[in-house]
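The passage that follows is intended for readers who have already worked through the single-chain material. We present the inputs for a multi-component assembly, then the predicted structure in tokenized form, and finally a short commentary. You are encouraged to pause after the input and sketch how you expect the pieces to fit together before reading on.
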Amino acid sequence: MQMSQLVLKTLREAPSEAKARSHQYLLRAGYIRRLSSGIYSYLPLGLRVLAKVSNIVREELDSCGSQEILLPALHPVEIWERSGRIKKMADVLMKVEAKSGDFVLGPTHEEAVIEAVYQDLSSYSDLPATVYQIQTKFRDEPRSRYGLMRTREFIMADAYSFDSDQEGMRSSYSKVYDAYNKIFAKMEIPFEPVEADSGAIGGDVNHEFMSPAEIGEDYYAKCSSCGYRANIEAATRGSKDADAQGVGSELPELLYHYTPEAPGVEKAVEAISDLGVPTKAHEMLKCLVAIDGDQRLVMLLVPGDREARVPSGMRLLEDPEFERYPYLHKGFIGPMNAKENSIYVVADLSVKERSHFATGGNKAGYHVTGAVLGRDFQVDEYRSLVVVRDGDPCPRCGSALTLIRSVEIGHTFQLGLYYSSILENARFTGPDGQQYPYYMGCYGIGVTRLIAVIAEHFLDDRGLIWPVSVSPYQVVVVPLGAARSKEIEEVAETIYSGLLKDNVEALIDDRKLSPGVSLADCDLIGVPYQVVVGSKSLKEGQVEIKVRRDGTTTKMPIEEVPTRIRELLGRSL
RNA sequence: CGGGAAGUAGCGCAGUUUGGCAGCGCGCAGCGUUCGGGACGCUGAGGCCGCGGGUUCAAAUCCCGCCUUCCCGACCA
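Having made your guess, compare it with the prediction:
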């Protein structure tokens, strides 16, 4: 491609809306252009990167045995009503009202894919099968940001597996899981699969693929020694060895304090301390009340300085519901009366590490100090109930956990029977002639988000630096001063057309700009290899090959360029 | 949805305090000089000053309402 023909104009300054460096460069180098918040156009260079990334995904999914399809982006609202997700995903759904009815712009495609394939997967002999598509998704994100990182319209590669039993589902899952690992490895970005929470999609086992990055909006916990890795929403905390319950030192008396203006840990700490009993947040016990799957009342006990992580299957009691339980005084709840009111008490593992606590007094306006575990209150069950922090013990081996800031680039789920039990078409006929539900899996890769992640990972103060596998072009030929020198122009042309003949994806900067501008633009655009043709080297019959990533420049005779480029691109030919 | 900031040429910004010709840099077009790391001179094109209302002889500037964008938070397969 001749750069003079390319629809491209680089910008010297980034539009002020862009904050992330990758976003600034993608705008400045003419890859994308914003239409509205979180809505982007892909210009020629950007589209080529998109195609490269998509093709890597396509190749790996094809070779793990899944088949490409294309589902509609526009869904009749009925399929969302049938699955009940019209309510569950109401916050992100983009709705369309038309003369002919109400529609939803698909944010994900579980409903649509079942409608598309159930007739073809109607017998056990049709299973297993995995299909995928690479398609635009729509989500009304409350806050799109960082360019392609988080947008309202984005491209995702989403796959769906259908199996007749759980074992089959696990096998299909691991095929896609392996393919995902290969896909991200080809893009050369750092990533780790981590255990994850299943959120609104539902289901059981699932992993998120996380790429560590400064601009990440997610965290995952990683164990330094045993390989445990889990998203912060799913990570659990182990316990420390210390078992304070048996410690024989004198235990304090249970004392009530009148603290009327002090609901909540922060205010309570202050109020109790002011009354002469110095107390710190971690010495308090936060008592939350939840309802579990069986509609039982559960009290969750968490150290006062920790954020609670409500286990899946439970939900916290909402404010109006407190009226039903007169013995619960919101802001002043304590565990001392749990037993008499048949509340099941679950405490975080770390609660074992202290013998006594300050906590709510179970009377409006009162807190207590000296509530002794085992004497003043009992715990029915211990489990991890806190959002993990740096340095917490690993739930598997007890070593320290580290939190890593990262971006979610993929997510794989074993859905099991989640959708098949809701959607009546999601079933097949077994060998015995009976109807059975599919065991499903679903899998997503944020294709356009990956462009942002790769760009963010590979850049320097001059611009982008694409890995060869996703770069819009592999090589750019840069004649310096071609306007004045016929020879430079011809040599550059020869090299360029030679590269094209070798099926190298080459670009030539034939724009006849001053050398500084041309070189700066090529650095900004980030094509991995530059062949610089200039008067200095040409005097000696040589040209230079510059490796964008490390800036190294090598002079060589013109004839050697094709061989050298082939080597750099790792091709045999 | 809560808190904050900002909307002036394609991009970056000044001008708004104190109402009085709509400006600067980059980019764009033409001519010339320059030419191995974002050169220079001259000439030129390009504006609904976010939108709507109001005050005023006069509004980018003051007042009211709205919209959009960005940042922080809440939210998030």
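Commentary: Residues 473-569 of chain A form a domain with the Rossmann fold fold (CATH 3.40.50.800). The longest strand of chain A covers residues 401-416. How closely did your sketch match?
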